[in-house]
Amino acid sequence: MKKSHKELLTFLANNKGWQWYGNDRQTKKLVDKLVARNFCLKQQQLLDNGYIFRQVKLTKEGTA
Asked: Is the dihedral of CA 16, 18, 20, 24 positive or negative?
């Protein structure tokens, strides 16, 4: 697991609940990898102005 994955997991462990993440390609790929490993859950919604609001949350398995 890369350093960036560990940093995101510790951030999510310290800050409970849904956290916003950026729309850049690198961050989306990092979150997608953690979701594929069942460490995180993600959700997104399209706002009225066309912006995609993305959020991520740590799962129960990710905290163990």
From this structure: positive
> Residue 14: phi, psi to the nearest 5?
-75, -30
> What's the whole-model pTM score?
0.79
Distance between CA atoms of 39 and 54, rounded to whole angstroms?
A: 16
* β partners of residue 54: 21, 44
Closest residue by Cα to residue 59 from 36, 31, 40, 37: 40
Question: For residue 57, what are the β-bridge partners?
Answer: 41
Taking only the tens place, the pLDDT of each residue in 12-62 is 999 989 999 988 899 899 999 999 999 999 999 999 999 999 999 999 765
